[in-house]
Give the backbone structure.
Amino acid sequence: MEKFNPKLHLPILVFGLAAPFVVPGLTIQVAVLWVMVLFALTWDVMGGQMGYNSLGNIFFFGAGMYICAIVQIAFITDVGAYTASNGGVRITFTHQEYFMGLICGIIAAAIGSALIAAALGWTVFGLRGPYFAIGTLGIALAAGELMGTWEWVGGGGGISMPVYPGSADGKAYLFYFLCFAAAVGTYLFCSWLYSTRFGLAINAIRDDEQKAEAMGVHTLRYKTIAWAVSAFFLGISGALFGNITGFIEPLEVAFPTVTFGIFMVAMSLLGGKGTLWGPVLGAFLFHFLKEFTWTYFLGWQWVALGVLIIVNVVFFQQGIMGWLMEKFPEKFGIVVEKKEAAE
Amino acid sequence: MNTTRLLTAVSASLAIAGLVMSGPAQAKVEGDTIILGSAISFTGKYSTNGIHAKNGYELGVMKINEMGGVKVGGKTYKLKVQYYDDESTPLRTAQLLERLVNQDGVKYFLGPYSSATTKAAAPIMEKYKVPMIEAEGASRSLFNKGYKYLFAVLSTSEQYLASSISLAAEIAEKNGKKASDIKVAMAFENDPFSLDVRAGVLEDAKKYGMKVVIDDKMPRDLNDISSTLTKVKALKPDLLVLSGHSKGAATGARQIKEMKINVPMIAMTHCEAAKITSKFGASTDDFLCPTQWAETLSYKDKYFGTAADYDKLFKKTFEGYKNVPYQSAQATAAVLVWKEAFEKADSFDTTKVRDAISSIEMETFYGGIKFSPAGNNIAKPMVLRQIQNGQYNVVAPSKWASHPVNWPRTAK
């Protein structure tokens, strides 16, 4: 596991803790930044470290969002009555009801998503390469459509989330710090995970799955656990995001396959997949560029993002971290045998 | 460790850039300008209507500024709208409105386009206690949550196509048939607005004991409803009802033409906004289209004159409109309500302005405006128009009808 490094970790920690007080106007954008960091890190567990490119990880974001919402509402009232399309019941949540519901909801979202991943793992891990990517994409797309027909959770009409009982600032701070904590937690967990035997095993699967299997690595078990780890943290992010957005709807909010679902891949590729810091760096740059173009080049934001992805994929396939490692290997502790190279 | 230094430098510079970008929060009233905020769809599946609504806002702002602006506390102010693109997804709405409130300091809002995005907007307005006058979110579920800062100038969505059901019943009885013999086929987009339209249609169909033979949901991209239409060919319903915003209307009209669907009565929402008469010509004749507003109605006000005058001015100002979509008219009406509310409150205090809005009673070119305690407008009816030789003529309710309804419709 990476040791605490004051030069590297401290500025980020200070930025994370101070942001909502220094730049209160940007609280939500920075909170979304932490969600993006979490997205990129969790995608990289599979895509970068294990070599399984999932296009459907966003499914667990939506699953977490719905599980949390259902728990929050079921705490107080009947979900079907709350979400009824012709109006539904109106409820004011007290502090205790709201926070108990939220805490239980987040826990249920994390565990529930991980369990779903474990269950799905048995079926999709029979697929390799592009078939795995398309298979997982199918799961995310199908989930949106299925939730859209499930009347009990509001169908396409969605769910209006419980209104936060406290002040506006209180809500912003609460969800900001929850998002920050979730991102830091994901980072620490990944950092620890990659330093264990587990990290080596999933790297072996990436490099040559048949060989790993022949060496006695129980590949299916490792793959399933890796996916469940991604799903666990994605479930938390979904639970938080649903509450920040205030309104859940299956196609656009819970399972945004073509936006967040693609962003998580793009961010990992931009920063450098298969590294611990690559996804974090990618998320920072990507989110910054997106917010910047959104503000100053309205109407061109998608063009700018498209250009970024094309440049990234065509010229820097290994991402920023990969490019740096190639350019300055000695700074990453990689020893190049000069003599050998000269011969 | 040079890597860490590099990463530190990158993160530090990003943080600094973020600080610079955020800038000082602007005031809600800058000098002699009142800033209204709106996050609306310029891209994505609702972009057609998002732009219609934006044009409506702009025309309202232009007219009020031309006529001297808004008088508050003895001083005159101009209006200006600050926009962001929500990309037709509620996912962005909350973030953009937070930005408008916190970074841009905006305290007065115009709505987004669609019920789904408005549903995401309402909790933000409640959170910050800032009022929003919206013109494009019609779902009833917006008005039973007890929101105090959300006001809508339009009629709610269950009223959109319910009148087509009573019209079908009326015609059946005139022809010696029973209303309960009518077979209804319907297809709706799976979103809060269309589901509420569906709820209204179902309630009325049930009242007459009609048989619903097809009850489909449109696919998410609204690009193909041929599977529903194939069933329509087989089951021969007496009434076909469609609702899926502009894109759903355009797809419906296109495929009804391509597949030569012959149903005696077809009703769909968003005909004008999707410009179906100019796109699909005579094949759209005899379609029934509900509208919040029509230029032939006898409404008028001191800003635009009559509904017909508004229609003329709009066509002159914005190119490419054969018919003015009601989405634009109601957006303009929302701006008029803002002006009246500021002047009535004679203050920029959000609570006072909110109270002023809730007590407003006014006549506009768009119809009467008076808000119920829930925030919806209860002073204006929906009307049903039929496309007759490429013209939209009001056929129901009878109080406003200018032409008799053509029935049955034959495929062209």
Summary: Chain B touches chain A through 63 residues (CB under 8 Å). The first strand of chain B starts at residue 29 and ends at 30. Chain B has two domains: 29-155+296-370, 159-291+383-396.
